Amino acid sequence: SARPVTITITGAGGQIGYALLFRIASGAILGPDVPVRLNLLEIPQGLRAAEGAALELQDAAFPLLRQVEVYDDATKAFSGANLALLVGARPRTAGMERGDLLAANGGIFGPQGAAINAGAADDVRVVVVGNPANTNALIAASHAPDVPAGRFTALTRLDHNRALGQLAATLGSTVGSLRDVTIWGNHSATQFPDVSHATIDGESVPNLLSARLGGADAAREWLVDSFIPRVAKRGAEIIEVRGSSSVASAASAAIDHMRDWVQGTQHGWTSAAVVSDGSYGVPEGLVSSFPVESVEGEWRIVQGLDLSAFAEHRIAASVGELAEERDAVRELGLI
Ligand code: NDP
């Protein structure tokens, strides 16, 4: 039988952690044949919540779950980790400047990157969920010089999935029939959800939108005035309706990201924030969202896509924000 895979989850006592743990233990990332060991990392004030979740994991009697450990020490928690989901982060609070937020998170993600460098398994793969996710991933990667840069990623799959949901609802299709939607840039309000290459059963989504909405101008207007802002600001919409932030959908997207990374993408591409190799003019080293396929356990940026002037402009704006965040953390000495 397969060897157990060790998965480290930070912020495991929080809300997203609670929504993640039970699905991971049921096999949602690695499939029904691979046993898992869970290492839960928390800060001292989150430890009891993580310990409580560990008790519940025991009570759920998942056949694949071989071990659960709870730590407040990053070095121990990342020791031997094959997969790491970095969920715990310092949230922005009222009156907090961006520099304060980046500094607080640098104090979390720098040491975690160093702990991954020191003790994670050779095949470690990391996804950062905690915000500002792209720049937190950059900080972690910069503290892990012995780990290939391609092993550090940030989550934009929730934005991607939100885009699929909106398109399916508008076009009366299923999310499973949609192919080749892209989120570009930062996991922030500047992100660019791009449907220009998307298809449903081989038909172009822009053409289907024109047919549905009464012409190309109406389709363009819908994309710019409704679709793009709605996807980018969906988090605020969820908070307003639900009374608290998105949790289960964020956890589900993190699982989709890891499952596709480990098991491969099957039908066209998806979106993930990966360390740029300079593709599409995104400066090398920035952790930016791209169209990606997972092949043999590695994310590969889909090459050679034609971009309209509109798309180039939107991508440049979001990438510009990432460059500013990188410059800010550099100035703070965090990378
Ligand atoms: P959540 O579990 O709800 O969220 C955790 C992180 O995920 C936040 O940074 C949040 O960003 C981010 N996130 C990313 N995408 C989304 C999305 N679409 N919707 C909502 N959140 C998203 O927060 P909790 O406060 O419940 O839990 C955080 C836990 O992390 C706490 O238990 C805390 O103790 C722990 N923690 C652990 C650390 C560690 O292990 N070293 C370090 C710091 C904290 P945003 O703030 O923008 O909503």
Automatic annotation (TrEMBL):
Its EC number is 1.1.1.37. Residues 6-145 form the Lactate/malate dehydrogenase N-terminal domain. The keyword Signal does not apply. Substrate binds at R92, R98, N131, R162. It catalyses: (S)-malate + NAD(+) = oxaloacetate + NADH + H(+). Residues 156-329 form the Lactate/malate dehydrogenase C-terminal domain. InterPro entries: L-lactate/malate_DH, Lactate/malate_DH_C, Lactate/malate_DH_N, Lactate_DH/Glyco_Ohase_4_C, Malate_DH_AS, Malate_DH_type2, NAD(P)-bd_dom_sf. It is an enzyme of class 1 (oxidoreductase). The active site is at H187 (proton acceptor). Gene3D superfamilies: Lactate dehydrogenase/glycoside hydrolase, family 4, C-terminal, NAD(P)-binding Rossmann-like Domain. Keywords: NAD, Oxidoreductase, Tricarboxylic acid cycle. NAD(+) binds at G11, A12, G13, G14, Q15, I16, G17, N105, Q112, V129, G130, N131. PANTHER family: MALATE DEHYDROGENASE. Belongs to the LDH/MDH superfamily. MDH type 2 family. Catalyzes the reversible oxidation of malate to oxaloacetate. HAMAP family: Malate_dehydrog_2 (MF_01517). This is Malate dehydrogenase.
